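Before surveying the methods themselves, it helps to consider a single example record, giving the amino acid sequence and backbone structure tokens:
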Amino acid sequence: MLFALITWQVVGHGPLRALDEHVDRAVVGDGPAGLTELLADLGNVQVALPVLAAAVGLALHRRRPGPAAAVVVAMALVPALVAPLKELTDRPGPLTPETGYFPSGHAATAMVAYVGAALLVGSRLMPVAVLLTLATGIGLVLRGHHWPLDVLASWSLCGVLLAGAVMVSSRGRRRRGAGTPSRRTGPS
């Protein structure tokens, strides 16, 4: 619902879009350029996908192919969903008249790669994944690569993708565990 609301406001030039553009103009260029560019680059596929690939490899080594496949599918859906949405919304960038900035593919890639990796490796890494995702979004906005709503929309869209991955992988665990005897009780 959040994604739909943001998209409606962006496409319809609503009050959230006006606020978004006002906030963006106030913060673009803030922070050290090298650091903010580094943060924005965390959303590049060359950075984020190797992290996810390592986590998928570990999940496969741990014999967890279902969760690994679910996260890989979520990542594959990122460009499949983001690219057409960029075409449909046709939003110009903060520092350019060129269009195709909504939603942010870099923010989406970062979220699915880092949060997906944490889901596969272990929940203790979730704070790191969230921090990397937030840092990417902040870098994208401060460098002027995206409007804040571009980033927020990507996160809301990818939250749904990751929730779906969690549901699919947990359903597979329940199904496998349903007919398996408990170690404590043994077969009935």
Observations:
- Residues 148-178 form the longest helix (31 residues).
- The radius of gyration is 19 Å.
- Helices lie at 2-11, 15-27, 33-41, 45-61, 65-89, 105-121, 126-142, 148-178.
- The chain is about 75% helix and 0% strand.
